[in-house]
Amino acid sequence: MNEKKLYFIAIIPNLELRDKIQKIKEEVSMRYKAKHALKLPPHITLQMPFKKDESIERALVQELAQFAAEQPPFNVDLLGFGCFAPRVLYIKVVNHAPITELQAKLEKTLEEKVNFDPKEITKEVHPHVTLATRDLTSHKFHLAWDKYKEQAFNNTFTVNSIFLLKHNGKCWDIYREFCFNA
Predict the structure, then answer these.
(1) InterPro entries annotated for this entry (predicted)?
(2) Residue 116's CB: how many other CB atoms inside 10 A?
(3) Residue 159 · residue 180 · CB < 8 Å
(4) Which of 24, 44, 115, 166 is 20 to 30 A from 146, alpha carbon to alpha carbon?
């Protein structure tokens, strides 16, 4: 029997913006003792973590490559900070439509081509870039939110690929990038 591995699918900003967001995540982690979000790169989730036999990895990679090749690039605007009280602090995505449309198409591909069970599929996404989650205590959350709620953050990046991430037992690694149709 093949071993099940943990994967998820996401949009990841370009390296320059990724580094900028990573610095904010590290600041939040140091200041508010919330390290969980550091286990993965800055991203916008398209498909929540899922377990699959490693034996289907090749088929998954092929289908994601084909799916991505059929997608047009689009821009994502990031503006300011938001929260899901009392545990999550994030950077806001302004224009949800292109991401939710991409996610809906991905959902269909995963169900039809990779035989995902409908229960495995992420049905609704609220696009955002997480800075702190899970281990951010309620008290520290309120301190962090007081600091970031009025703070400026404004950036735009072009989405021209999606990423498959794979858990290595401790954190998430970028496993594959799938480029869109240029």
Answers:
(1) 2H_phosphoesterase_YjcG-like (IPR050580), Cyclic_Pdiesterase (IPR009097)
(2) 17
(3) yes
(4) 44
